């Protein structure tokens, strides 16, 4: 028996529409510039794949993996790089692609880290933003949906590594024992 109940929060149709809108904005904003998308594994993999195809200028793509959550629903607060970028980003325009900003600790660490490598610009694109949980401020340049303080899964986002392949985004609530 499942110990959680799932409630749909953002449908695949809503996501598809939003990805198109954000892609259009990025296409306009970076016209004439060399843009590198940096996806943060694993959560952003699915968003990155869809977003990249909605951008109509040439882009390069790279990935980083960091972890602060492990298999818990609470951030440990300590960010570790598990996989670094393959190339030097000095002088490049970087757009970090994230699935969700929660406490902000992950992106605060990554933006600092990439800025120190001498990128020309480092901007942030996130599909979901959960502002109520923020511990550090992060400047968000492209934002899909603002969501309430609920644990979410689907469209790349996991709970204990499961549910990433769900096409919609759900909030997970623990079932009450009676
Ligand atoms: O704003 P924060 O509180 O730091 O949380 C957001 C981060 O947490 C999740 O990643 P996680 O570390 O769980 O790895 P995953 O992407 O592999 O699931 C999510 O994908 C974000 O990267
Ligand atoms: O709501 C969430 N769900 C899954 N992983 C997460 N990492 C930060 N917030 C979340
Ligand atoms: Mg996770």
Automatic annotation (TrEMBL):
Boundaries of every Phosphoribosyltransferase domain copy: 11-159
Pathway per the UniProt entry: Purine metabolism; IMP biosynthesis via salvage pathway; IMP from hypoxanthine: step 1/1; Purine metabolism; GMP biosynthesis via salvage pathway; GMP from guanine: step 1/1
Cofactor annotation: Mg(2+)
GO annotation, biological process: GMP salvage; guanine salvage; hypoxanthine metabolic process; IMP salvage; purine ribonucleoside salvage
A single Gene Ontology CC term: cytosol
EC numbers on record: 2.4.2.8
Keywords: Cytoplasm, Glycosyltransferase, Magnesium, Metal-binding, Nucleotide-binding, Purine salvage, Transferase
GO molecular function: guanine phosphoribosyltransferase activity; hypoxanthine phosphoribosyltransferase activity; magnesium ion binding; nucleotide binding
Entry superkingdom: Bacteria
Compartment annotation: Cytoplasm
Principal cellular location given in the protein's record: cytoplasm
Catalytic activity, as annotated: IMP + diphosphate = hypoxanthine + 5-phospho-alpha-D-ribose 1-diphosphate; GMP + diphosphate = guanine + 5-phospho-alpha-D-ribose 1-diphosphate
Function: Purine salvage pathway enzyme that catalyzes the transfer of the ribosyl-5-phosphate group from 5-phospho-alpha-D-ribose 1-diphosphate (PRPP) to the N9 position of the 6-oxopurines hypoxanthine and guanine to form the corresponding ribonucleotides IMP (inosine 5'-monophosphate) and GMP (guanosine 5'-monophosphate), with the release of PPi.
Family in the record: Belongs to the purine/pyrimidine phosphoribosyltransferase family.
Protein name: Hypoxanthine phosphoribosyltransferase
Species assigned in the record: Anaerosalibacter massiliensis
Gene encoding the protein: hpt
